[in-house]
Design goal:
The protein is an alpha/beta fold. Helix content is 40%, strand content 20%. The protein has helices spanning 3-13, 20-29, 45-56, 66-72, 93-103, 118-130, 148-153, 169-178, 216-221, 239-253, and strands at residues 16-18, 33-39, 60-64, 81-85, 108-112, 135-139, 163-166, 182-186, 192-193, 203-207, 224-227.
Amino acid sequence: MDDKRKENLTAEADGVIEGRNAVIEALWVGTSIDKIYLQKGETDRTLGHIASKARAAGVVVVEADRRKLDAMSRTHAHQGVIALCAVREYAGVEDILRLAEDRGEAPLLVICDELSDPHNLGAVIRTAECAGAHGVIIPKRRSAGLTAVVAKTSAGAVSYLPVARVANIPALLKELKERGVWVFGAAAEGSVPLYEADLKGPAAIVIGNEGDGMGRLVRESCDVLVSIPMRGRISSLNASAAAAVLLYEAVRQRR
């Protein structure tokens, strides 16, 4: 087998589909696609057809410059389009809340605000499943999705823990609060130290992105901003590590 063919097969096995014909075929046969990246500024009719067909199927379409596509490409022949497959279907927020109800437990949710690193998202899902959380919620845009990399990093947790995807995180937080769920945002400048936060009741833990933390509207939508004690010289934890610390404090309080 030549190297080019081998690269194509490896990429597809990892859930990456590159090239116009390959992406069109994937859409045609109903492959579960998480997100499609299209080259910004391209007016090609074929790419326009891919975009319209993808949106009609409910697939998130993102414009990206050529440099980003080149960096993502495994085959070096993306032709201005790369699709990332979803390893499983997304759940609904109602499914997650129903799971908590079926278990007779107060809801424990993790909400990731624009967590773009798939390794971080996979680690959060893995920790959330181990801690007995009922689900993880991510935004549709500017976030990693349920790709093969996320699945691998989660060590299989994506098979057991429901993950929902919503269009608007602040709107979701408002809805959750109306349903009696307290929203705790992890923030270095939080006014409530972690060990004083009451995580025994219905709780949603919000984790911000790797660079800027939570967005302003998300931050303002939180009931409580929680700070994690820092004793070293570095002032913040990795997003997935912060999620683990808050989740296991919730586990301790709920024993």
